[in-house]
Specification:
By secondary structure, this protein is α/β, with parallel strands linked by helices. The protein is 47% helix and 16% strand. The radius of gyration is 26 Å and the shape is globular.
Length: 432
């Protein structure tokens, strides 16, 4: 099932990099198509959004109503079954509690010249949350994207999910209502990203767009970045599992499958120093896949992008982890702490056999919006900080400018910026 890469052989590092790059190259940006869509939405507004929605969703209905009314939200959200409501409520509380501990505090201090130097945090005013529709219609996406914004103090959270044909998972609206979302739109795709970025008559312009989506959505977010903020450009989901002979092969196989069922482009990697474990995991994968409703998707993912890496020591295991920089990292060994200390690149780390990545997806507490495709080398998961702006406040005293001016003037002249130097000198002259 999983191809095996022996990392103890020559050129194994190059082989690993080629394997990882193969998947990245498939995730092509739809730049030309997306650019045209964005231009059309900017020019024609709601008409373009509706036309694209009907075209890409293959909808033939006449309705042009792209905003959910309060009555619709109440009526549809009530269809959510009791168990799901209870689970969403539990997840909401746990995620909010964890994110509440992330809040940063503004601070002020006075230096020896009595200059007042401050750092202040303020929330964004308006945020757009993109929630995919169809087979990837997840209320957990609503919670994970809205809750950090709530904790940050964002007052206007707008949400959009493809549902112009009125087909929507009621739990999406229940979760959105729970999060106090102000507006919910019925469209998706690159055209909706454009509408959120630039505004139309019906879709309000926002300051930042967050949430996952397909290749067109990801490309659109990339395109509008700069005119509007974005969380990240995320690719298909991924997991790397480090396991030794003490790990249960059935649990390891189950977690690899849990990731693979997301998408045919999802990536599931096993890293082990035990060849027998790899064989046992492969056998378990075959058995478990037979019972899986999404076995075709999971099988394609594991066959094309699944990998088992055989490695002989912890130093190389840590090297491999940091090269992959996985979105999710599970560690199931008798030496977890030693490996964790060496990990620099990973989105979220799950430790021990009772910590499946699935718990992190739903209600462990930390955010499940994480960097993918190796971007954990330079970025982190969604947090409260993503919905806050930071401002520095500087108030210099007369003594302060007198004592600091000579150094400022010297540096300004060194950089051939005489206007900068003069803006300080003129103040000194005025005072004397």
């Amino acid at each position: 099932m999983l191809k095996v890469l022996n990392f103890n052989n020559k050129n194994s590092l190059k082989a690993l990099e080629l394997f990882l790059n193969k998947r990245k190259s498939i995730q092509k940006n739809q730049t030309n198509i997306v650019s045209k869509i964005i231009k059309n939405v900017k020019k024609h507004g709601d008409k373009a959004v509706i036309d694209y929605e009907k075209k890409f969703s293959k909808i033939k209905i006449k309705s042009n109503n792209i905003v959910f009314s309060s009555k619709e939200i109440d009526k549809i959200s009530k269809k959510t079954d009791f168990k799901t409501k209870k689970s969403i409520d539990l997840a909401f509380n746990r995620i909010k509690k964890f994110h509440s501990k992330q809040k940063f505090k503004s601070f002020t201090y006075n230096d020896k010249y009595k200059n007042v130097l401050s750092y202040r945090y303020t929330p964004l005013e308006k945020v757009g949350v993109y929630v995919p529709g169809g087979t990837a219609s997840y209320p957990s996406t609503v919670l994970m994207n809205c809750i950090p914004a709530i904790v940050a103090g964002v007052k206007n959270i707008h949400l959009t999910t493809p549902s112009l044909d009125s087909k929507i998972n009621p739990a999406i609206l229940y979760a959105a209502k729970k999060c106090g979302v102000k507006k919910i739109y019925k469209t998706g795709g690159a055209h909706t990203i454009a509408a959120l970025a630039y505004g139309t008559k019906k879709i309000k312009k926002v300051d930042k767009i967050v949430g996952p989506g397909n290749a067109y959505v990801a490309s659109a977010k990339k395109e509008v970045f700069g005119d509007v903020g974005i969380d990240m450009v995320a690719g298909p989901s991924e997991v790397s599992i480090v396991a030794d002979k003490t790990a249960d092969p059935d649990l390891v196989a189950a977690d690899l499958i849990a990731q693979a069922e997301h998408d045919v482009y999802a990536q599931s990697i096993l890293i082990s120093n035990d060849k027998n474990l790899i064989n046992l995991v492969n056998n378990s994968l075959k058995k478990q896949l037979e019972k899986l409703p999404k076995k075709k998707i999971a099988f394609k993912s594991l066959k094309k992008f699944g990998l088992a890496i055989l490695v002989n020591n912890n130093k190389k295991i840590i090297e491999i982890i940091n090269i992959i920089a996985p979105e999710h990292l599970e560690i199931c060994t008798n030496n977890d702490d030693k490996i964790i200390k060496g990990v620099k690149n990973a989105g979220s780390i799950f430790i021990g056999k009772y910590s499946p990545e699935a718990l992190g997806d739903y209600l462990a507490g930390p955010n499940h919006v994480l960097p993918t495709s190796g971007s954990a080398r330079f970025s982190s998961g969604l947090s409260v900080n993503d919905f806050l702006k930071r401002h520095s406040l500087i108030k210099i005293t007369k003594t302060g400018i007198e004592r600091l001016s000579s150094s400022v003037i010297n540096l300004a002249r060194h950089e051939n910026l005489d206007g900068h130097a003069y803006s300080v000198k003129i103040r000194l002259k005025k005072e004397n």
